[in-house]
C-alpha cells in the first residue's frame, strides 16, 4: 500500500479508495483516486513525470523483486473542464439548499445517464427505514438509509459539490450536482469532508453519517432532485446490492415529484417512462366511478385502486378528514 502526503497530513490511498483493503490485489488499468500533489512515502520509490501524459514510478530492485517490471507508468487523464462549466452555468448557488425555489419547470423532465450503475452511498447493506412520501402529515422528500454515526458516506455519481454546510432541517448536509443536472443531497451528517466547488468522483468519500438537524436517530437522508423538483429516489435508483440505475434515459412526471402521491411507510409501485411518448401518454387519465361500501376509508380505496389519497380528494373536492357515506360516488382518476 502506498502512502502520500497531502496538506502536511498522512493518508493512505485507501482513504480515497474505500473499497480497498490492505491486502487488495490491484489489477492492470484499475482506477485509483489520488490527489494531484502526491509524494509517495512508506515504500522507497522514485516518482517523476515521465511525459505530458504519464507518471513514472521507479521501484527499488529489492522491493521490486518478484515483479515483472521495476518501472510502473500511471497515465494522467485530464479532466473535462467543459462538463464543469456546463453544470455551474445556471443556478449555481453555494448558500441556498434549493436555488431553483421559484423556477417554473416543464413536465415531463428528461434525465439521462452515462453509467448503468451508481456507487452505494454507504459501505454496508442499504436498509431503507423510511421512504419518499407522505409521513406524519408532511412530505418526506427523500429516503432514509440506516447507518451508525461515524459511518462513511460517499457520492453516488461524479459531480461537483454545490452546497456543504449546516442547514436547520437537514443538519450537516452535502449537495452534489452531477453532470446530467441531477442533484443528490446527503443529510444529517456528523462531519463534512468536502467544500463547495470541489469535484468529486463516483464512490468518493464526502463525509460521515450522523444525527444532526431535525432527526430522531442516526441515518442518511438521501434526496434526489432535478431543477429543484424533488424526485422519488427509487424511481431513479434501485437500492439493492446491484446498485443499478433504472434506465439510461428516464422521463419524470409530476407523480414522481409529489410526496403526497406516495406513502413513506411502503414501497411505491414503479412504472418507468423511458421515452417522452410514454410519459405524455401517462398524463392522459381515465376516470372510474367508485361506489363507497361499508368499511371503506380513503386509505383503503387508495390502496385497492392504486390512486393517491391526494388525487381522490382533489378530484372530488373533499378533504382527507371528510367522512365517507355508504353509496357515495367518488370519481377516481387512474
From TrEMBL:
InterPro entries: Cell_wall_metabolism_enzyme (IPR050570), Dup_hybrid_motif (IPR011055), LysM (IPR018392), LysM_dom_sf (IPR036779), M23ase_b-sheet_dom (IPR016047)
Signal peptide stretch: none
Annotated GO MF terms: metalloendopeptidase activity
Alphabetized CDD domains for the sequence: LysM, M23_peptidase
Domain LysM residue range list: 288-332
Keywords tagged on the record: Hydrolase
PANTHER family on file: MUREIN HYDROLASE ACTIVATOR ENVC, PEPTIDASE-RELATED
Name this polypeptide is given: Murein DD-endopeptidase MepM and murein hydrolase activator NlpD, contain LysM domain
Species assigned in the record: Winogradskyella jejuensis
Amino acid at each position: 500500500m502506498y502512502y502520500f502526503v497531502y496538506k502536511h497530513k498522512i493518508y493512505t490511498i485507501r482513504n480515497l479508495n474505500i473499497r480497498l483493503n490492505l491486502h487488495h490485489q490491484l489489477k492492470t488499468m484499475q482506477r485509483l483516486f489520488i490527489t494531484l500533489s502526491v509524494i509517495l512515502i512508506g515504500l522507497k520509490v522514485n516518482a517523476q513525470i515521465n511525459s505530458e501524459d504519464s507518471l513514472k514510478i521507479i521501484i527499488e530492485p529489492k522491493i521490486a523483486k518478484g515483479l515483472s517490471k521495476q518501472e510502473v507508468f500511471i497515465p494522467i487523464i485530464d479532466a473535462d473542464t467543459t462538463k464543469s462549466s456546463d453544470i455551474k452555468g445556471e443556478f449555481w448557488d453555494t448558500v441556498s439548499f434549493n436555488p431553483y425555489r421559484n423556477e417554473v419547470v416543464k413536465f415531463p423532465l428528461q434525465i439521462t445517464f452515462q453509467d448503468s450503475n451508481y456507487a452505494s452511498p454507504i459501505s454496508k447493506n442499504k436498509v431503507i427505514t423510511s421512504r419518499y412520501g407522505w409521513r406524519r402529515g408532511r412530505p418526506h422528500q427523500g429516503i432514509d438509509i440506516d447507518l451508525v454515526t461515524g459511518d462513511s458516506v460517499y457520492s453516488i455519481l461524479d459531480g461537483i459539490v454545490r452546497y456543504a454546510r449546516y442547514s436547520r432541517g437537514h443538519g450537516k448536509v452535502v449537495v452534489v450536482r452531477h453532470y446530467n443536472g441531477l442533484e443528490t443531497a446527503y443529510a444529517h451528517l456528523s462531519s463534512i469532508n468536502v467544500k463547495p466547488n470541489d469535484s468529486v468522483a463516483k464512490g468518493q468519500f464526502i463525509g460521515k453519517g450522523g444525527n444532526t438537524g431535525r432527526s430522531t436517530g442516526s441515518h442518511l437522508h438521501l434526496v434526489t432532485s432535478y431543477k429543484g423538483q424533488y424526485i422519488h429516489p427509487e424511481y431513479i435508483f434501485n437500492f439493492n446490492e446491484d446498485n443499478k440505475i433504472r434506465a439510461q434515459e428516464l422521463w419524470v412526471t409530476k407523480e414522481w415529484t409529489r410526496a403526497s402521491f406516495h406513502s413513506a411507510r411502503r414501497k411505491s409501485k414503479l412504472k418507468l417512462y423511458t421515452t417522452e411518448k410514454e410519459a405524455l401518454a401517462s398524463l392522459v387519465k381515465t376516470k372510474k366511478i367508485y361506489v363507497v361500501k361499508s368499511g371503506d376509508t380513503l386509505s383503503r380505496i387508495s390502496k385497492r385502486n392504486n390512486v393517491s389519497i391526494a388525487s381522490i380528494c382533489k378530484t372530488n373536492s373533499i378533504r382527507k378528514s371528510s367522512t365517507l357515506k355508504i353509496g357515495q360516488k367518488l370519481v377516481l382518476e387512474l
